[in-house]
Amino acid sequence: MKVTGEKVKIRQNVLKIALIVAVIIVLGLCAFKIASNAADISRKRAELNEKQTVLDEQLAENDRIKEILESDDKSEYMEQEARKKGYTKDGEIIYYDSSSGN
C-alpha cells in the first residue's frame, strides 16, 4: 500500500512540475508578444509623426499656392511652373549651354 501512495505522490509532483512549466512557457510567450506589440506601436507612432510632418508641409504649400492663385501674380506663377516642366511660349527658342559640362 505504501508503494501505491508514493506513486501517487510522484505523479502529483510530476503533474505540478508540468503545470508550472506550461504556465512559465505561456507567460513567456505572452511577455514576448507584449514586447513585440509595444515595439510595433512605437514604430507606428514614429511613422505617424513622419506622415503628419509631410502632411503639414503639403498643407502649407497648398495654402501658399492658393494665395498666389488668388492674387495678381497668378499668371507669373503659372508661367514659372510651366517653364519648370519644359513648356515654352509660341515662337520662343530655348538655348542650352552645352559648354558647362552638364
Would you mind describing this structure in some detail?
The chain is mainly alpha-helical. The protein has 2 helices and no strands. It has helices at 2-70, 74-84. The model has no long low-confidence stretch (mean pLDDT 88).
Mean pLDDT score:
88
Helix/strand-derived category reads mainly alpha
Number of helices: 2
Q: How far apart are the termini?
A: 100 Å
Q: Give start-end ranges of low-pLDDT stretches.
A: none
Order of SSEs: HH
The proportion of residues in beta strands is under 5%
Oligomer: single chain
Morphology: rod-shaped
Instruction: Estimate the helix proportion, in percent.
Output: over 70%
Number of distinct beta strands: 0
User: What radius of gyration results from the CA coordinates?
Assistant: 36 Å
